[in-house]
Design a protein that fits this description.
The protein has one domain. The protein is 78% helix and 0% strand. The protein is globular, with a radius of gyration of 20 Å. The protein is built from 8 helices and no strands.
């Protein structure tokens, strides 16, 4: 990646744009790499979401008279006020699968290429891994809620809710959480 970045820095257009005060900050290596790998992570997320959605629908999981939804409604009658409960369960389950695939991919790329973490000992890497996955739980909850509200209350397309709205919120949240809480620079870095 260093060789690719060196070629980018030598590009005349990049040089001229990066001289601008605002554009220079936006075109910093960390931001450019985050957006690039964030795009790849988004692709992993969308493809794994679509695959899980297809598998759930083709297998009939989380649809119609699902036992889990019936059991939950029996125990918690207030749940009947949530629109299309079984669809919400399926959306959430599908999103968790997608989330796990994307977060695993993002951890590796963010650690090595975006924030260039120098943590190498097993304990340090495990601490970063826990912090990374932990911070992503927050963005998972935000994205899941966005998709469920988009579909249930607004009648929007599930994949549009996932791709357009959810991913924008997740991209911004994840950068802030990664930069300031997970891969924060220490004196050793």
């Amino acid at each position: 990646m260093d060789k690719i970045w060196q070629r980018i820095e030598k590009n005349k257009l990049y040089k001229s744009l990066s001289k601008n005060k605002l554009l220079g900050k936006l075109l910093a290596r960390e931001i450019v790499m985050y957006v690039f790998f964030g795009g790849l992570t988004t692709l992993v997320s969308i493809l794994s979401y679509a695959l899980a959605m297809y598998l759930f629908e083709s297998r009939g999981w989380f649809s119609g008279d699902m036992a889990l939804a019936s059991d939950a409604l029996g125990r918690y009658p207030w749940l009947k006020h949530i629109p299309e409960l079984s669809e919400s369960f399926r959306i959430f389950a599908t999103n968790i699968i997608s989330w796990f695939a994307a977060v695993t991919f993002a951890f590796v790329t963010n650690k090595h290429y975006v924030f260039e973490s120098k943590a190498g000992r097993a304990g340090e890497v495990f601490k970063e891994l826990l912090a990374f996955f932990g911070s992503r739980v927050f963005s998972l909850a935000a994205e899941s809620l966005i998709i469920i509200l988009w579909v249930s209350l607004l009648g929007g397309s599930e994949i549009v809710g996932k791709v357009v709205i959810g991913q924008i919120v997740v991209l911004v949240l994840n950068f802030v959480l990664s930069k300031f809480f997970v891969f924060k620079k220490t004196e050793k870095n």
